[in-house]
Write a structure and sequence with these properties.
- With 94 residues, this protein is an alpha+beta fold.
- It has a domain at 47-94.
- Helix content is 17%, strand content 9%.
- It has helices at residues 6-10, 65-75; strands at 51-54, 82-85.
- The protein has a two-stranded parallel ribbon with strand order 1-2.
- The chain is globular and about 50 Å long.
- The model has no long low-confidence stretch (mean pLDDT 82).
Length: 94
């Protein structure tokens, strides 16, 4: 899940190869990822082996963090790691 549609529009990274498995969404809003199946909304939530969030968390408001972490917990397998990073410095342009 990507928070911005810029990579999709530019066909950057893996969007060209995995276009049916990548999508944009707002992770601070309620969501449930479910597999495409005949069970539809009754299908259990997708359980991921690993979830990563590179330079994402600094963009999330403090009030939205509990809900986000609850969703990460819902979609992460019991022994699966969550790996993330934040940008602490300010970029300068030259």
């Amino acid at each position: 899940m990507e928070g911005s549609d810029a990579p999709l529009r530019a066909q950057r990274a893996e969007w060209r190869l995995l276009h049916h498995n990548l999508f944009t969404g707002d992770i601070t809003r309620p969501f449930t990822l479910r597999p495409s199946s005949p069970a539809g909304p009754a299908a259990p939530p997708v359980a991921c082996d690993i979830i990563s969030a590179w330079e994402v968390m600094q963009h999330i408001a403090d009030a939205d963090l509990p809900g986000l972490f609850a969703k990460l917990h819902t979609h992460l397998k019991p022994d699966g790691p969550f790996v993330g990073s934040i940008a602490l410095g300010r970029r300068t342009t030259r």
